[in-house]
Amino acid sequence: MKNPNFIPLASPDITQKDIEEVVKVLKSGMLVQGEKVMDLEQKCSAFIHTNHVSALSNGTATMHLALVALGIGKGDEVIIPAFSYIATANVVELVGATPVFVDIELSTFNIDISKIEAAITDKTKAIIPVHEFGLACDMTRIMAIANKNNLFVIEDAACALGAMHNNQAVGTFGDFGSFSLHPRKAITSGEGGLLVSKTLEQDQRIKTLRNHGIKIDEGKMIFVEAGFNYRLTDIQAALVGSQFDRLSEILDKKQYLANQYQQSIKNPKFVLPQISNKNTHTWQTYHLLCETEALRNSTINYLKTKNIGTNYGAQNMPAQTYYANKYKLDTVALFPNADIAYKRGLAIPLYEKLTLEDIEYISNQINTI
Description:
alpha/beta, Aspartate Aminotransferase, domain 1, 2 domains, 7-stranded mixed β-sheet, 3-stranded antiparallel β-sheet, 13 helices, 16% strand
């Protein structure tokens, strides 16, 4: 049976209220960073129980500014997982530092914490753990390693707004925590990001850096740094701020739908995601591990004929052309789990607009493969 309606891999849920909030901004004439941006920052602070949040133009910008603010640059090393979206490595390159890749655990797709200390050298300045696909890392263990070795921590929580480790929100453990507001995330501004700072001083620095290095002194603009234009517009902030009001309901719905997948997919050729009791999942991606790479590729093609959108989950970053040419690492030998996750990983649709019938239809197609 072919579903007559195409089921995309992701589809933002933009309501009439969201649209009306954007229209209000358009009618106001105040389109750039303003009141709606400040409202968004306050909503995020309240949601994850922190004090210092800056809205930026995208998730990559948030991590870039975090590295800049920490003074990380040429000659420094930053430890990152080998498996993530390429932006995690790119921001390290952008500041002139060297990404040091560490393999992942296949059970979580997160960095293998047992391998972090072996990657630390006298040049190591920071760790960027990634809460991959929305599943919280064990931040207790990561922070213990960072504190022991006097390292900064920038949490790449792009997919994980609302995920918890030991009842504390991810993004609030390290020196900085980065969230993305891309359309594949639970809530979206089209492009956008939120950066959590540990201290007021750090937050003020980020707000200066995002706006051309400007500080206001006695009502006058003073350019104190060579900053960036990483501002979020009030148009974007109004769009995502309206969605923020129902974020808890969105995450609950995604958890419910993920549970349905867990119960409905029975094909032993596909390994389902695994969840621990102390780390919660926001289900930005429902990521299967296929028996072989050939099966993953044929499954993508088969599901396309059934009107189901799928894709690879993330990249084995050191195997991508730029990093392979620059660092020439034996990525299969050094990062076997990242290699497997990249070659055999499959992302299938999971978002709040899906129905139980959609989940059943997708599951049934996978079960027939």
